[in-house]
Amino acid sequence: MTQAVRRSGPVAAMRWDGWLPWLWLLPATIVLAPFFFMPLLLLFRNSLNRDDAVALMVPDFTAANYIKALTDPFYLELFSNTIGAALLVAITATVIAYPFAFFIARYARRSLSLVIWAVYMPLFVSVIVRVFGWMIMLADSGLLNNLLLRAGILATPLRLLFEVDGMLIGMIHRYLPLAILPLFNAIQKIPDELYRASSNLGATPVGVIRDVVFPLSIPGVAIGLQLVFAGALSDFVLPQILGSSRFRMLAPAIYTEATTNMSVAMAAALAVLMLVFIIITLAAVSVLLRRFAPWARSV
Amino acid sequence: MVTGASGDSRTIKTALTLYAIAVTAFLLLPLVLAVVLAFSSGNNLQFPPPGLSVQWIGKALESRTLREGFMISAVVGVVSSLISAVAGTAAAIAINHFRFKGRAAAQALLMAPLSLPGIVVGLAILFALPLLGMSSGVLATIAGHAVIGTPYVAYMVLASLANYDLALDRAAANLGAGRFRTFRDITLPLIAPGIYAGTICAFLLSFDNVALSLFLSNGNTLPLRLMQSIQVYADPTVAAASVILILMSLAALPFLERAFRDASTGRAI
């Protein structure tokens, strides 16, 4: 700080300037220091404590919770369920989003604002409403089963609600906009001349997409994958309402450990592990981008 | 050759158009279903509904638990988004107007709540409450939601500051305006759309929040009440409440549009 003041000039009044940005940062510090940074440190510290049936949480300094979480089959299944579901949702959402984002970036000139509105709209509607919509769709007497039964495709209703499939469909719907928007941004930046130049040089439409559009859209793909993966990995509402009790997911498990099971130290360790998974994907994305899209610096 | 290629791209375009319509329908479908079911005369999730009625709208408006939840969520949303507005706007100005040591770190820390899962932040704040002399309830929920809202406001304000010319500040100073007047008469009007949009975003996020409220409230915010009633009854009351929530979001969208345009055309942040 004092260095910055010295560098910024010899005038005495500049000393006040050195403090000025920190003054502007003060309100955010008052909010974030006690209610974000201190709690996160405490979360990490508590994950090293011991849970006790009688005394709740006993101060300790042990990795026991982490060892248990990473060796006990019960928790291992929890992680493989959650990471598997999140990967599946991230990849599916990106595959669905890609042609859509390409279309709105390239062709939807007049209807662009309408389509963008349709992408943003679900994001601003309560997630409870969206989940409820899927319950209506997937219920035994819901829309999908009604259609399939009437069309004679099914003889008995398909069981989707409160099953893994229904939860995955709900998750793909919830996070699809997060895959579409970064892709749209990336593809929109590709100049028209590149398309014309490549087809003048004899590239087929498929060749243009494979060799020109796709490599340039890698930042959008990577960011979308990461956002959807992180969202699905930490989702509470979807597994809780649409999910199956036989397919346990991490976020509801953290809540159950902390409340019903009174294992707060274990809950803290699971929460830290969730953070670690998300940090790993963030790091993977930045490595991937440096390797395949070195021009995209500001990510 | 040439006609063949353009014929190809026309086929691709038609296929993409149909695909885009299908994806748009998929995105909007659950919202439409919830709205239609709100006017069902049946008492379960049967779709298409057996008949039409407004009984569930009436039931939702009469429900004491939902009304109480709505009031609590409204208070938490308004207060926490106003706190976020002040903290986020001021922080955005610090990041945009000044070059100081630790600026990059300050920006990263400011945006950190954006990439952390709510369930982790909620549990962490729950641990900290005793140290802060607080317990779960409306105040704790407001504080938690303000944490999530602050980086959103900062992001939106930074977007509207992207094209802000600092020469304006110097011109104002040369003309004799003090720092406060410069801020009030020059800076504030120019970044107002960003502040509005960020604050509305923060409000909607708070109003819809589950993961933090789970730990910090006493289970009485509107989303938690709706979740409980979905899990117990699964009747159209929730659909009726959904209509009200969708109308609220629709009312907010026009305010957000301009800021989103700023955010998508402005410099990368």
Describe the structure concisely for a colleague.
The complex is a heterodimer of chains A (299) and B (269). Chain A is mainly alpha-helical.
Topology:
The complex is a heterodimer of chains A (299) and B (269).
Chain A: H1 2-8, H2 13-46, E1 50-52, E2 56-58, H3 64-71, H4 73-106, H5 112-123, H6 127-138, H7 143-150, H8 164-188, H9 192-200, H10 205-216, H11 218-233, H12 237-241, H13 250-258, H14 264-292
Chain B: H1 2-37, H2 55-62, H3 64-97, H4 103-115, H5 118-128, H6 138-161, H7 167-174, H8 179-208, H9 211-216, H10 222-232, H11 237-265
Helix pairs in contact in B: 1-11, 2-11, 3-6, 3-8, 3-10, 4-6, 6-8, 6-11, 7-8, 8-11
Describe the overall structure:
The complex is a heterodimer of chains A (299) and B (269). With 299 residues, chain A is mainly α. In chain A, 74% of the residues lie in helices and 2% in strands. Chain A is built from 14 helices and 2 strands. Chain A has a two-stranded antiparallel sheet. In chain A, helix 1 (2-8) packs antiparallel against helix 2 (13-46) and helix 9 crosses helix 10 (205-216). Chain A is globular. Chain B is mainly alpha-helical and 269 residues long. In chain B, helix 1 runs antiparallel to helix 11 (237-265), helix 3 (64-97) packs across helix 6 (138-161) and helix 4 packs across helix 6. The model of chain B is unreliable at 1-5 (pLDDT under 50). At the A-B interface, helix 2, helix 4, helix 5, helix 6 and helix 8 of A face helix 1, helix 3, helix 4, helix 5 and helix 6 of B.
